[in-house]
Amino acid sequence: MRNFLIKSKTIENVGVLYPTGHLDAHSVEKFENEMIKMLDDSIVKIVVNCNELNYISSAGMGIIMGYLDEIREKGGDIKLSNVIDRVYEIFDLVGFTEIYEFVDSEENAIEKFKNVS
Amino acid sequence: MFPETPELSVSIPAKTELLKMLVELTNHIAVRNFFPASESRKIALAVDEAITNVIKHSYKESSDAEIKLDFFCSNEGMKIKIEFSGIPPQLSDAMVNLEKMIKAKKKGGLGVALIKRIMDSVEYSTIKDTNYLEMIKWKKSS
């Protein structure tokens, strides 16, 4: 079994990323490439659906952090959805829970983006 | 406090592909040493962050370099000693200003902060070109 997989899709101009497995300094490049692809396609409303994400280290959080300013400058944002408890604990350790919006479901995250536009 | 002989010693090549194995190993040792599951996962994350820093910053991703880890366990807690050469690490603060880092479009800089928030004691030293990082986590009840 592969340690990390990333898939994505676009729903009504909102990009949804599906990181799966173990996101660390080894697998982070795949995650970053998918984030860059979204930006290249001018998608700046991004939901990271963490339902299948079992682990994240600072390498993965760095990507969510490093592109946020560019995304917000372009009128977008990053929302995190479906985060399991053990991963939420890690986000909370560095204060991500105060900066990013954590939403219980992907559908609600997309709906929140629609309400802003 | 801790026995002189480590419960386990491992030497690994400085490769990020081994991080997941180290996380699983550290988590296993912490659980076996009666740390709660949540604490054990955090100790494993601290080891991930420490080893990632060594690979990225001390060894500049040179994969033929080696890292040695010693795990010491006692009733009071767990100590992890990491031995490596290369560029001595720089200690950043446990506190990070996320808003500032986001404005600066920074992708790095959270690792040491995480280590310091998770572990109760974090000490770096360099003796004759060898760097040592000692991290201790005490059990809450002790």
Describe this structure in words.
The complex is a heterodimer of chains A (117) and B (142). Chain A is 44% helix and 30% strand. In chain A, strand 2 (14-23), helix 1 and strand 3 form a beta-alpha-beta unit. In chain A, strands 1, 2, 3, 4, 5 and 6 form a six-stranded mixed β-sheet that branches. Chain A has a single domain (4-116), classed as Transcription Regulator spoIIAA (2-Layer Sandwich), CATH 3.30.750. Chain A is globular. Chain A is an alpha/beta fold. The mean pLDDT of chain A is 95. Chain B has 142 residues and is of the alpha+beta class. Chain B has a single domain (8-138), classed as Histidine kinase-like ATPase, C-terminal domain (Heat Shock Protein 90), CATH 3.30.565.10. Helix content of chain B is 35%, strand content 27%. Chain B has helices spanning 19-32, 37-58, 98-103, 111-118; strands spanning 8-13, 66-73, 77-84, 121-127, 130-138. A five-stranded antiparallel β-sheet of chain B has the order 1-2-3-5-4, with helices on one face. In chain B, strand 4 and strand 5 form a beta hairpin. In chain B, helix 1 (19-32) runs antiparallel to helix 2 and helix 2 packs antiparallel against helix 4 (111-118). The radius of gyration of chain B is 15 Å and the shape is globular. Chain B starts with 7 loop residues before the first strand and ends with a strand. The mean pLDDT of chain B is 92. The chains are: A alpha/beta (117), B alpha+beta (142). The A-B interface holds A 3, 22, 24-26, 55, 57-59, 61-63, 65-70, 86, 89-90, 93-96, 98-99 and B 16-17, 19-20, 23, 38, 41-42, 45, 48-49, 52, 55-56, 96, 98-99, 101-111, 113-114, 117-118.
